[in-house]
Amino acid sequence: MKILIVEDEPKTGDYLRQGLREAGFVVDLVQDGLDGLHLGIEGDQDLIILDVMLSRMDGWGVLQALTQAGIRTPVIFLTAKDQVEDRVRGLELGAADYLVKPFSFAELLARVRNVLRRGPTATESSVLQVADLEVDLLRRRVSRAGRRIDLTPKEFGLLELLVRRQGEVLPRSLIASLVWDMNFDSDTNVIEVAMRRLRAKVDEGFEVRLIQTVRGMGYVLEPNRAA
Fold first, then answer.
1. Count of domains forming the chain
2. Which secondary-structure segment (H or E) carries 105?
3. Is the domain of 23 the same as that of 84?
4. Domain check: are 145 and 219 in the same one?
5. What is the mean pLDDT of residues 197-216?
6. In this structure, what are the phi and psi dihedrals at residue 130, rounded to the nearest 5 degrees?
7. Do 113 and 145 lie in a common domain?
8. Do 89 and 141 belong to one domain?
9. Model confidence over 11-24: pLDDT tens digits?
């Protein structure tokens, strides 16, 4: 599959191009908005990774112009602009996903594959829901049965990963890579501690438990009536 990267920071662009090529993708890289727009219209990309702050035309303008030209290639915004209103604007313009710098390449790769699985016409809701649990990706808010749940940034990232991969058993090594951006160390209990705290906030007091431990394998988010 073919990916177009539109990124004006040379080091970031080269890093992305190398990593995605090693993951098996064909990659084009350009450094300004107009070149990105021309390639996006004329090329046959399966996905575009688009920075917002670009010369000649910013990422917002590139996506709007692509949409007006009838191009349905999914776009992932990759940017340092991390305000809620920026994420809202990106998704409202039709972006398939929005990732804030600095980022973990493992997380970017997971999001790339997720968007490609959804196909060119799919767009993701900003609110993910499992049973009576709601995760608002834009406002970074979580509630269950209408009750607000306050999470730390790491807890939110952990819950978002579990919800996005609902029903899939996630090994500790994958969780360490995607949420903590680190290699898994079997001597550390950071994941177990974080999962225990998250489970206390999300499941405690509810008849249906959502976060399950699969012995010897990892964790899964899947509704299961408490014993």
1. 2
2. helix 105-118
3. yes
4. yes
5. 93
6. -135, 120
7. no
8. no
9. 999 999 999 999 99
In degrees, rounded to 5, the angle at the alpha carbon of residue 176 between the alpha carbons of residues 174 and 181 is 110
Average pLDDT over residues 134-155: 89
Question: DSSP letters of 116-175?
Answer: HHH-TT----SEEEETTEEEETTTTEEEETTEEE---HHHHHHHHHHHHTTTPPBPHHHH
83: tokens are 């305000």
pLDDT at position 199, please?
95
Token pair of 189 as six digits: 């209990």
Give the chain's radius of gyration (CA, Å): 19
Residues 133 and 103 in one domain: no
pLDDT of residue 187: 61
- pLDDT tens digits for range 48-104: 999 999 999 999 999 999 988 888 899 999 888 777 777 778 878 888 888 888 888
Strands 208-214 and 218-225: antiparallel
Same domain, 60 and 6: yes
Tokens of 90: 């990106």
Secondary structure of residue 220 in the 3-state scheme: strand
What's the pLDDT at 227? 46
CATH code where residue 105 lies: 3.40.50.2300
